[in-house]
Amino acid sequence: MSAPTSPVRSFLRDDDLSPAEQAHVLGLAATLKAAPYDHRPLAGPRTVATIYDKPTLRTQSSFSAGIAELGGHPMLVDGGLAGIGVRESVADVARVLGRQASVIVWRTFAQAKLEEMAAYAAVPVVNALTDEFHPCQLLADLLTIREHKGTLAGLTVVFLGDAACNMGNSWALAGVTAGMHVRFGAPEGYTPDAEVLATAATIGAQTGGSVELHADPARAVAEADVLVTDTWVSMGKEDEAAQRVAVFSAYALTADLVAQAKDDAIVMHCLPAYRGKEIDAEVIDGPQSVVWDEAENRRHAQKAILTFLAEESGLSAQRVEAPGSSR
User: Is the model's pTM score more than 0.85?
Assistant: First the structure.
């Protein structure tokens, strides 16, 4: 039997938002950051179920604080204790949590499980990270770039290292949705998913954005506005650590590479960071780093997507205006 289609809006991958909707959500994030306690669309309080199957610091703390600031109640669900997909089917968990919570936030492994949850839940589902996509991190990253650069469209952002990961896929989709030129400096075999690249090309034809692949890290970073990297050893790949360090060592974000980008380029990392591996200490702790703004902006960006989904699904107790955005 095929899964049902839920009528509510969920946020499962970056291209679930149109370019106009992405701009609107980023505008909402700026509004909610400027006045963190003035807008309470989850007043009631409405309960948001937050499920974590993977280790977490920024995701759990930023969602918990953000839901509370929106007037809602964060309900922590231990993924290990719940045994989703093991002790109970994903569909049954979705039906149960959909009767207890107004929104479900899930940080898990396979994207397919998240999509199954969204199909059976009668409430919005938010991707707080899967093996394939990390769309909430990208909203925080775009908000941070907009704060420091004043715009997104037309900027060149370079992602260095292992681009065959959730951050690589999400940068390809979210970056071109914002009209950015996204370059990947990555070795052959470690580039974003082919379906994602094809989708990004289609979106870029509408927004003016683009995606390029470069095996040469120096060529990739030339004249870049934004430099991004991530750990080379993602969760679940710990047994490949030695091999991956050897493969990616030429793609480390060093001061020499930063010097080949624009003079006012900013440096980003979604954390946790391993100094001396994918990024040098003098870079992440240096004057061009905006990493701590990026970490803080997880809260504001996630408040914005929760507000957007609550309004789209008729759950919001208060409408929040995003100045300067159009949908």
Answer: yes
